[in-house]
Amino acid sequence: MQVKLLQNDSIEKRLQMIASAGKLSQFPGSVFEVYEDSVDMEDNLKVIKRITKMGHKSIIEHDYFVFQISDVTPIIEQLLIGYRLTSFTIKSRRYVDFRNAGFYVPTFRDKNYKVHKDNSNLQEKYIAHANMLFEEYSAMIDGGIPNEDARFCLPYSFYSNIVMGLNARELEKVICDFLYEDISRIQEVKELGEILFNIVKEHIPYLVSFIENYKRKSDNSCLNEIAEIADGSCFMTTKAKDVQLLSTTTSCDSKVLRYAVMNKLQCNENEACEYIEAMCSETNKFFKEKMMDEIVHSSANRELESVAFTFRIPISLSILTHLTRHRMHSLLVPSFTPLWDFDFFVTPKTISDSDFASSYEELIEENKFAMLEFKEAGVCDEDLIYFYLGAQMCNVITTMNARELIWFTRMRCCNRAQWQIREIAEKMVKLIIPFAPLIAKYCGPTCETEHFCGEGKKSCGRIKEILENLPKK
């Protein structure tokens, strides 16, 4: 694992910027004068520590960092992307051949998180097993299986590369979680937390005491008690066969329209309803549709955020980041432990329709038994997560407001999107149609909803057919 901080400004300049932001609300003078007066580094550091100790940490959001991170697994990748105020660029497994990427081999530990007495032998077995999986991946690519589907047989120990940008406040949260919360039991996570903390000690002095004095959050004892009385299985996944709509705001379309009128005219809800209905005459029967179109295409369209939809989605590890990277939704992703059901996996159609179909099924089964062998040897669950394959499925729950759902489906219903996330997005659109038909009209690829395609030379060509079939004006 390697981590490099890309930082141009000196500590002095950054402390001056943050301290002047902290002083601005209570000091005389313009923002420029307060900044020019904040030249003493030691004084600036004291000001920052004093203000942040009072709980006013917004000032450190002005301090921004970009990290290059290499030789970490998708386990790290998924955890980091889950932080909503971070920005990421990640090497694509859809287009890049990963057969020479290399992979992580944990120091296997027992149930007490002590180095396993048979660690050396276990590591040798894991290396041989991972090499077998990579060989199958290579054979699939050589056999004509697309990279994006061959990756479903890769272990989630393969190495990835990340560029991550975040402000100091979010960095503090990441480090504290990685060092002290439940996920710190994953060795690789703890190691990254320690590396980042060492960088903080050198470049971000005002964060050191906060991280050192961090108090662990709830231990989730109630949830753990429920887990103990679950079905007795060592796996904690119940298979969801398809996307489910768990709940939705009532009268979604009507509420968006009413709230737009209430905001515009500063009237009450009953008055807004009356105004809208008064406009829906025989000669203006499509008034509501026209009004929704104006809201959707307005520059802010915040009214769409007042209604929401909650879905339960079965999704593979290979595709999970395609959902996680959308920031403006409330996403519940299960922890990597307790272990998920290793019989809950997906087979890409390109594989099921090929000569690799039987070997893929055998590989999935062999991987499961290899994991069980390590589990029976007493290896802790946090080290067994590297037996997850890209094909492994889990259930996530997400709540999206209408504005985010429109954006998400525009991206993910496109024919250029990966096939599994596209199928998920298409099912989400179908599920909301009975509850929000006006909003649903704007959910889907832009070629359908806007008669526009932004893919340029990479367009699937469907836009041409749609435009040719539009009614002539």
What does this structure look like?
With 473 residues, the chain is an alpha+beta fold. Among the domains are: 2-70 and 161-212, no CATH class; 250-305, no CATH class. Helix content is 47%, strand content 11%. It has a four-stranded antiparallel β-sheet with strand order 1-2-4-3. A four-stranded antiparallel β-sheet has the order 5-6-8-7. Helix 1 packs across helix 2 (31-37), helix 5 runs antiparallel to helix 16 and helix 7 (168-180) crosses helix 8. The longest helix is centred in the N-terminal third of the chain and has 24 residues, at 119-142. It is globular. The N and C termini lie far apart (60 Å).
Radius of gyration over alpha carbons? 26 Å
Largest sheet: 4 strands, antiparallel
Percent of residues in helices = 40-55%
> How would you spell out the order of helices and strands?
EHHHEHEHHEHHHHEHHHEHEHHHEHHHHH
Separation, N- and C-terminal Cα atoms: 60 Å
The tally of strands reads 8
**Widest β-sheet, arrangement of strands:** 1-2-4-3
The best one-word shape is globular
Average of pLDDT: 92
